Amino acid sequence: MSAATAEMAAPRAALLLKLDTLGDLVLFAPALHALQRAWPATRLSVLVRASYLDLAPVLVPGIDWVATTIDPFVQSPGQAASELARLQQMVTALAPDLVGAVTSRRNWVEVALAAAAPNAPRRVALGTAHDDPYFSTQLRLHLGLTTPVAFSECVDSPPDEPDWQRNFRLVDTLLGRAVPRVAPRLELPTAARDSAREFLRAHGLAPGRFVICAPAGFANVAIKTWPAENFGATLRHVRDQHQLPAVLIGHEGERAHLEAVRASAGGATLWLGRTGDLPVLAALLAEAALFVGNDTGALHLAAAVNVPVVGIFGGGTWPRFVPAAGRATSVVQPLPCFGCNWQCVFGDAPCVKGIAVADVTAAVDRTFADANRAAAVIHAVEHLPASTRELMGRAAARYHEVQADHLARQHQIEEKENALGQKDRDIAALLEVCREREKLIRTVDGHAHALTAQLATLRSDHALLQQTLARLPADAAASARALHDQAVHIRNLDSIIQARDVELAELRATAANRDAGLHNLEQAKHYGRLLTEKEAVIQSLRRGHAEREAVITELSVQATSTTARLHKLWTAAAAHLREKWGRPLDTWLFRKIVAEYWMQIGVLRHYDPRPLRWDERLPGPRPPEANLPQIALVTPSYGQEKFIERTLRSVVDQHYPKLLYAVQDGGSKDGSAAIIARHAPHLRHWESVPDKGQADAIHRGFAHLTPLVGPDDIMAWLNSDDLLAPGALPFVAGYFARHPDVDVLYGHRIIIDGEDREIGRWIMPRHNPATLEWIDYVPQETLFWRKRAWDLAGGIDPSFQFALDWDLLARFQLAGCKVVRVPYFLGAFRVHAEQKTSQAIHTVGAEEMRRIRTRFHGERQDDFASIDQHARDARFWGAITARLHEVGIRW
After folding, report:
1. What pLDDT, on the 0 to 100 scale, is given for residue 580?
2. CB neighbours of 176 closer than 8 A, spacing ≥ 6?
3. Strand order in the sheet with 13-17
4. pTM of the predicted model as reported, rounded to 2 decimal places
5. pLDDT band, residue 655 (cuts 50/70/90)
6. Any residues with CB less than 8 A from the CB of 606 and at least 6 apart, and which?
7. Selected residue with higher pLDDT from 869 and 374
């Protein structure tokens, strides 16, 4: 039995590529239902445009719908390189047994994704094996592919066969048997029906007692639109003859055209949809008595919910889009230039513009009169004489010949330009290799000089050691002292080397920042260092003054023998009491207040997972919107598909009216980009491109926002696995508005696990500038600052990868900014195995923290006693603050 007649085995996974418009997707639904019934165990994945993702599960539930932002009929492969790479990785991970291209017109995305599954046993394309000339050139120049290379099977069909029937030819081929042809039918969700009926009630309309009109739908092809005045005349006829008011539907971007139709109609109700409203549109269509329009997307939706339709068609793709409905009338004026794919010879689509108002109103009247009709009708009109039609036919044929010749020449030019461009790219690549090698040679040469110097130092130390050993006396005590002195000398040398390494790291970071154009950052750091040195001199003078006062006091005490004896007695008694009672009391108090208490700053898990609970309401009066500052917020992200959705929702669901939100993804290989794209209407900017790490991503994100904000506006970043507290943005904005002297603020933190369950809390003490010099204890996800502070500090330092938030806070403090802690929970920090905090703290993190402490304390940066003392202070006062918080006192 041949493959054409034998029933095919069900694949494990099948990927169908459907990148058409809304109407095409509705017409494909019955064929997809047939495949779903025939292959119940198969993982069926369908790729569609992101704007239709809300309706797709309503059309066919139980399918793995995959969204993309690519429009292959508008974008070239070079314009969508990152998204194409993501889709190719998705195909590789899916490893489908079947790839099907079901878009009505061949496009480069289908070919590229089919080629990404070379091991798929079947790669089937609906349509001819011959490529569209334009897309053929795109494929050859950008991807080096052709349709025969990507697809092993092609399913052809008659050019005049309606699309909804043509789709079943693909199903027949995939299953190896013929299946019944079923017209599209749509079951609407209850929520969508409720929304539609609420809209009708709000505008005084009764179900089944209005006509719905889609007069636009020209996002892809503008010339196919019937004139606005014709639609207006038709709607006046329906209102006068059938007593039915009109509802005009369309997208927000079509408002101007719809307003023109409404004005011509003498009034009508307007419904403007936004992203995510397609189910509501379908429900609104289901309540209408009649659909009239030239938007085939809304037309096929109306037919699928069993509403009579009158469609106005042109010759671009006739008769592919004939509706699959019983009470459907297609008004069309057949011309000899039909099949032009909307590349109109005459520029204004006379096939559509030549249809008269009377033709459409007659079709409307017949539809109402013949309520029991069960077959679709094509109402062909002829308003042009035979001689004109003959002339149009000759003009169209000649036009297509000229276009084909022009396109062939254009393809030749593009191929030559591509060859020249490839040579230029090869030369540039070779130059880059040469630069890299030259840079490597300089680096290796520098290392060689450094190693030579180190070797000379080691030889000198070795000689010194030999001389020292030769001069050692015979007795053991003297030898031990000499060895001890030598060990002290070696430790001093080690300290000098460590200090030099820190200084070199700082110099390298400075050079990198200057090369990257971050001169303001380095200027701010320079002035910060000067202020630090000035403060060190002041503290040195203060210590000298104190020591002098102590010497004067000592001399005064020792002026008489009696006072000298009393002073020695007091000193001895104080030392005895400190050792006998003070230290044990301090240890006991710390254990009782901190160590035995559940809340400890620095600990990332305090209790077993429990439901996340925020403050019921963040306090403070809300200033008028006009007085609120803008908030510029950046989310850096990479590979956080599991968490990025929850992070984005924690921001956009606050509906802060003056939010400027940017998401900077580092070219994630998972589904992060698609998730971010779904939230694009709420974002000022987003992109998914490779970067140099988190600090670089934050720097890039703010580069799109800082030109839009003023000195008193607010900035912050939120990592892609953390959350903002509900109401945090209005609270922070209100606090800054009421406290113009405050530059920086932060608050308490909730710790959550990978499932958004609460596992701990950090209740922060009041801000202590001295503690910030030694340890980083401020919860980054709760940190907000004014733009003026950012400018003073010089912005983010891209040379930091771990302690970038502490570095920025340190520079805020050195610049004299006022920092406060507010006693409320502003964010949640997520603990999971892949996070950078847990991976880098003992490597690059330790080195970066040493650099920051050196900025404040110079050679004392490794004074572990001071580090430990300030950590204990933060934990102690945090525990006190938490205990007060438990009894309702926010301190």
Report:
1. 66
2. 3, 4, 5, 6, 7, 8
3. 64-68, 43-49, 13-17, 98-101, 122-126, 153-155
4. 0.48
5. very high
6. 598, 599, 600, 751, 759, 760, 761
7. 869
